[in-house]
């Protein structure tokens, strides 16, 4: 199936590693020119080099997605280097898991900033370009945690917020040929979850709760995002695609 992504320009936030890096690679393999952007400069540059070595079109813009000036620079650099922007994947994220009684205001604000404010700033920056060209794809990387997870009041709220935001934008921008959707990953075996003290327990519980008995892989998300970003998904908007091995609770 030709996804119609050849020549499209895609920004994937938080794409130095994990789900973002896999998604950027898949979009590039489908013919898109991808912008790797991350707060981790060294890793973002290394990932960009790897993609280029694979013969893919990739450009690196280092920045903090929570800072408006960094986001403006991201758009300016994208336009200067690739001449346009057609796809935005709001993937950057970081957890601060704690029971509410131990969660500080800083823990709350940190998670809201990276996930929600970052997605807002990036969406606001690309939208005029999407509108002008009458075509655009916005994909927010939410999580099955939008349904709630203990120790994740901040993370679950932010991930539910990303769904609300995509649904609102699907209504606002649909008339311009723009779609806004979410993917909601379940347990995905990435460095983010491997760094958690509870990694083994979480993994075991997640796989036990899934009809499909394996941990999720970054490519599972990459494939789902590539489809939603594609020409083929032009009549799908305001949707949440769960990539959870069949787990919804
Ligand atoms: N791994 C999972 O099980 C899982 C499940 C559901 C949803 N998700 C979501 O998927 C996304 C990617 O997760 P991952 O597992 O690949 O995590 P990861 O930690 O491997 O990757 C996240 C990337 O975001 C970057 N980042 C963090 N803060 C940033 C900022 N302020 N500005 C720019 N970049 C920033 C990090 O440097 C990192 O490279 C996240 O939004 C996460 O919440 C992950």
Automatic annotation (TrEMBL):
Alphabetical list of SUPFAM superfamilies matching this protein:
NAD(P)-binding Rossmann-fold domains
Q: Which UniProt keywords apply?
A: NADP, Oxidoreductase
Q: Does the keyword NADP apply?
A: yes
Listed PROSITE patterns: ADH_SHORT
Alphabetically, the GO molecular function entries are: 3-oxoacyl-[acyl-carrier-protein] reductase (NADPH) activity
Q: Where are the transmembrane segments?
A: none
Q: Which residues form the Ketoreductase domain?
A: 8-186
**Is the Iron keyword given for this protein?**
no
User: What's an example Gene Ontology biological process for this entry?
Assistant: monocarboxylic acid metabolic process
| Reactions that this protein is recorded to catalyse | a (3R)-hydroxyacyl-[ACP] + NADP(+) = a 3-oxoacyl-[ACP] + NADPH + H(+)
Quote the function comment for this protein: Catalyzes the NADPH-dependent reduction of beta-ketoacyl-ACP substrates to beta-hydroxyacyl-ACP products, the first reductive step in the elongation cycle of fatty acid biosynthesis.
Record-stated family: Belongs to the short-chain dehydrogenases/reductases (SDR) family.
Q: What is this protein called?
A: 3-oxoacyl-[acyl-carrier-protein] reductase FabG
> What organism, scientifically named, is this protein from?
Paraburkholderia piptadeniae
